[in-house]
């Protein structure tokens, strides 16, 4: 599944302007992840994009990941940093202002803020809403943070109006008829003056 996505979605998305990609498959075994990582990393390198691995610091080096992304219930950032050193970036999901504030004091390199809207990729997680984007914009300082969750072409302007300058999407590109065009449209909206 993840290997097919590299050819059908990832290449077009990168051509459309995506500059970071996360390999995320909760059902793939280690061998499947590592096989897919070879192609993901190669495509990211072709487009000067960063390649991230979800939840798996133990596979980061072997997968050639530039970064790993952790959830609130995964390995603590301090433990991941000890394991990975400074050569691998660490991202951390946050779902509330309290988690965001705690993450700002952590050693994470980037933060995810959301989900803004309900999304099946985060099933069961209540939406944090646009007020959370406003909070991150007001309190984030220089940290790199990304709005995430249910964002697509129809509602991205609301995220931007709330202060979001970076986003994470899955379905908005993965499920699009034309992933390259979808990525380009999202990038244009983010970069609009």
Distance between the termini: 38 Å
Which blocks of ≥5 consecutive residues have pLDDT under 50?
A: none
Using the 3D structure, state the CATH architecture: Alpha-Beta Barrel
What global shape is seen?
Answer: globular
> Order of strands across the widest beta sheet?
1-2-3-4-5-6-7
Radius of gyration: 16 Å
Instruction: Give the proportion of residues in helices.
Output: 40-55%
What kind of sheet is the major sheet?
Answer: 7 strands, parallel
The pLDDT mean sits at: 93
Order of helices and strands: HEHEHEHEHEHEHEHH
What is the percentage of strand-forming residues? Answer: 15-25%
Which CATH top level class fits?
A: Alpha Beta
Write out the CATH superfamily name.
Aldolase class I
Q: Which structural category do the helix and sheet elements fall into?
A: alpha/beta
How many helices? The count is: 9
- Number of DSSP strands? 7
Question: Could you name the CATH topology?
Answer: TIM Barrel
Description:
With 193 residues, this protein is an alpha/beta fold. It has a single domain (2-191), classed as TIM Barrel (Alpha-Beta Barrel), CATH 3.20.20.70. Helix content is 45%, strand content 16%. It has nine helices and seven strands, in the order αβαβαβαβαβαβαβαα. The protein has helices spanning 2-15, 30-46, 57-63, 77-84, 97-104, 130-139, 156-161, 171-174, 179-191, and strands at residues 20-23, 50-54, 67-70, 89-94, 110-113, 144-148, 167-168. Strands 1-2-3-4-5-6-7 form a seven-stranded parallel β-sheet. The longest helix has 17 residues, at 30-46. It is globular, with a radius of gyration of 16 Å.
């Amino acid at each position: 599944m993840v290997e097919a996505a590299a050819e059908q979605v990832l290449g077009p998305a990168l051509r459309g302007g995506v500059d970071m990609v996360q390999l995320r498959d909760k059902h793939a075994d280690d061998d499947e992840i590592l096989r897919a990582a070879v192609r993901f990393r190669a495509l990211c390198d072709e487009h000067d994009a960063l390649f991230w691995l979800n939840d798996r610091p133990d596979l980061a080096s072997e997968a050639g990941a530039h970064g790993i992304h952790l959830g609130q219930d995964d390995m603590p950032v301090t433990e991941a940093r000890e394991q990975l050193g400074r050569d691998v970036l660490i991202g951390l999901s946050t779902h509330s202002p309290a988690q965001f504030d705690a993450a700002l004091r952590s050693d994470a390199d980037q933060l995810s803020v959301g989900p803004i809207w309900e999304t099946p990729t985060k099933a069961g997680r209540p939406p944090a809403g646009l007020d959370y984007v406003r909070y991150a914009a007001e309190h984030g300082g220089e940290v790199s943070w990304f709005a995430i969750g249910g964002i697509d072409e129809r509602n991205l302007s609301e995220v931007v109006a709330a202060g979001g300058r970076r986003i994470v999407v899955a379905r908005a590109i993965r499920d699009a008829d034309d992933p390259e065009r979808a990525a380009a449209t999202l990038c244009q909206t983010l970069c609009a003056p």
